[in-house]
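tool_call: predict_structure(chain=1)
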Amino acid sequence: MIGWGDFYPRFSQHISIPLWDDYNVILPIFLAITTRAENIITEPSATCLTDTTYILTGVTHTMAIDRFISTYLMTYDHDSLKRQQIFNDPDTILYAGATPNTAINGESIFISGLYNIHPFEYPWQSTPSWIQVTRLDRSLNIISNNFYGGDAFYSPYSIIATADGGAFLTGFRYDLQTHLFDVFALKVDTNGAVTPVLIFTCSPVEIKR
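tool_result:
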């Protein structure tokens, strides 16, 4: 549901993003990246915050720091009110999770991330990654970063808010020894901390290269 204005996202001038509210498209966005949300190169996700603002999350980059997550507070006129950069180590790539990568629950905003990704090896990466769950307040101040995984290559694909104030994530897990893919599900509480009994994987499936 997200389209780039030009073929290669690093140099594209526009992205077309449907703004979602409870799974209904309420506003199609045609956003000029170069003037409104700087340097978004991939994984853009738009989520309704209020009647006049929305959250835009994606992967960005600078000359000093390789790819990392940027989250923007945007108006419906597509003006950027505030930007929050999320990164850990300037030498380790942090991608935003696939769309949707943002869940708003009460006063908390949860952002899913993929820490330690090597894009040219995806999805058969030979080194482990971590699921990163960043919790922000509604002013985009970072409250916490939590990491899960490290025993395989994890790639989060979706995040939704839960009734208890937390979030629920799904994605895939690639085992570095067996070379099999699993589906994972991860539940975090209101603080972004994992609820262990609700982590599980499905029966493994081998996917040939």
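agent: Residues 1-18, 23-35 have pLDDT under 50 and may be disordered. Proceeding to next step.
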